[in-house]
Amino acid sequence: MDLITTPLIIGLLVLLATRAVFTVKQKTAVVIERLGKFQRIAQSGLQFKIPFIDQKSGVVNLRVRELPVNIETKTKDDVFVNLIVSVQYFVTGNVEGIRKAFYQFDNPEAQIQSYVFDSIRSEVPKLILDDVFSEKDKIAVAVQNELAETISGFGYEIVKALVTDIDPDAKVKNSMNEINAAKRLKEAAKEYAEAEKIKVVAAAEAEAESKKLQGEGIANQRIAIANGLKQSVEEVRGAMEEGTTGQHVMNMLFMTQHYDTISRLADNNVSTIFMPYSPGTVGDLQTEIQSGLLGVEMLKEAKEKAAKDVKDATK
């Protein structure tokens, strides 16, 4: 009889020990019920319970979890857009928070998702599509604040709500890309026109400066020619006073000018106007210049004589 009862007693004690002792992992909590009623929260570590009376009703995860929510909604300018909102949340670590999170939410993820739907669909329709992109952080903050206020009474806390993706319809995206491309082309055309304007202005300024210098050069050249002619006339007059024949001086002067002109024709950098050329033409040109010079000389002598006659008459 003793041989039978001893193993039974030992087995019963082992069974009671295994039922009474249990461990709870880090960042988790175990809800203990006694005869179907909430008794306590068992935190991480070695724990004890009364066998057959106390029961482990469930395990609550205390880690920060992320819930991605895909939402389709309409903007103020009647564009349907899909948003992905990632909600990071966790169960409050105190006993009351764990109890509420375990007993009040039957399906926490689905119910949190419903709150996110409601919050997004109350915020996004206030904005046009462009503002949805530019103010996504404000949308996330609004969702976070509203969600935190709502679910804090159920033992949950919100760490962060993030709008991770905004995806409008494909046609809308294509039109947005075309608008953006058109704006960039407009800016490129504007910059190109500005560059062309700078080039034209610079070219005009360079041409004006060139014309100015060219005009100054021509003016200086004409002054030099006039001074040279003046000096030549004075030299001819001096030679004639010394007894040299004026015709010889003029012939030598024309021959010198003639050969100077021929030598300059070989210079490719000189703009040359070709005139009819023959010995007769040169002779006619010489005769005309000589006549002009003699006419000037005779006119000067006549003026001097008239002035002298007037002076004598007044005496």
Describe it for me?
The chain has eight helices and eight strands, in the order αβββββββααααβααα. The chain has helices spanning 2-20, 95-104, 108-123, 129-134, 136-151, 170-241, 246-264, 279-314; strands spanning 21-24, 28-34, 37-42, 45-48, 54-61, 65-74, 80-91, 156-168. Strand 6 and strand 7 (80-91) form a beta hairpin. The protein starts with a helix and ends with a helix.
The named CATH superfamily of the largest domain: Band 7 domain
Residue share in helices?
A: 55-70%
Biggest β-sheet strands, sense, barrel: 3 strands, antiparallel
Rg computed from alpha carbons, rounded to a whole number of angstroms: 56 Å
- Which H/E pattern describes the elements? HEEEEEEEHHHHEHHH
CATH topology description of the largest domain: Tetrahydropterin Synthase, Chain A
Average pLDDT level: 78
Strand order of the largest sheet: 3-2-5
Determine the number of helices (DSSP H or I, runs of at least 4 residues). Answer: 8
First CA to last CA: what distance?
A: 190 Å
Low-confidence stretches: none
Corresponding CATH architecture of the largest domain: 2-Layer Sandwich
Oligomer: single chain
Name of the CATH first level of the largest domain: Alpha Beta
* Domain unit count: 4
**Secondary structure category:** alpha+beta
